C-alpha cells in the first residue's frame, strides 16, 4: 500500500511538469491563453456563486462551481493546446503521420508507403472505414503518388474501399487539425476480422519504406533521400 502511494506521489510531479511544459509551448503560439483560462474559470465560478446566493446555498454551489470551473478550464486548455500544436506542425513534412499515429484504437497506420525525392509522402491507415491514403506535399505531385498507390490497393485488396485525402489548406484538401475528425466520420463498412485480414494482406505485400529507417513524426526540414533509394511510384 505504501509502495503504491509513493509511486503515485512520484507520478504527480511528472504530470505537473508535463502540464507546465504544455502550457509554455501553447503560450508561444497563443499569447492570450492565460487570460482566456482565467476568464473561463472566473466566469463559471461566478455563475454558480450567483445562483448559490439566489437560492440561499452559496457554499454548496461555490464548491460545485470550483470543481466545474476547473473542469471547464481544463477542457478549454486542452483544445487550445491542440490547436497550437497543429499550428506549429502545419506544413512540416511528416506532420500527417504524427496525427495518424494518434488517431485512436481500431486504426493501423503505416507512414510513408510512397514517397518521391521532393518529400511528397503518402501514408496509409486501415480501419473499419477501409483503407485511407493520406498524402502531404505538393497537390499536383501527390496526385500521381495517390493514383499509383490506389492502383496497387485495387490489385491486392479489391474488395476493400480505398479513400484518399490530401492534407493542406487549399480547395478539396483537409486541414491538418481536421484530419482525425474527417477520418473518424468515414462510414464503417468492415468488421473487425475483415480489418485484420486486410492488414495481413498489406503486411505480406510489404511497403516502399520497409527497409529505410524513418524517424517518427515530422521529418527534419532539408532531409534528403539517399542516392539510389526508392523512386517515386
From TrEMBL:
Question: Could you confirm whether the keyword Transmembrane helix appears in this record?
Answer: yes
Provide this UniProt record's keywords sorted from A to Z: Membrane, Transmembrane, Transmembrane helix
Chain ranges passing through the membrane: 33-53, 59-78
Q: Which stretches of sequence are listed as region Disordered?
A: 210-233
Which residue stretches does the UniProt record annotate as biased composition, category Low complexity?
A: 219-233
Which protein are we looking at?
DUF4191 domain-containing protein
Q: What is the lineage of its organism?
A: Bacteria, Bacillati, Actinomycetota, Actinomycetes, Kitasatosporales
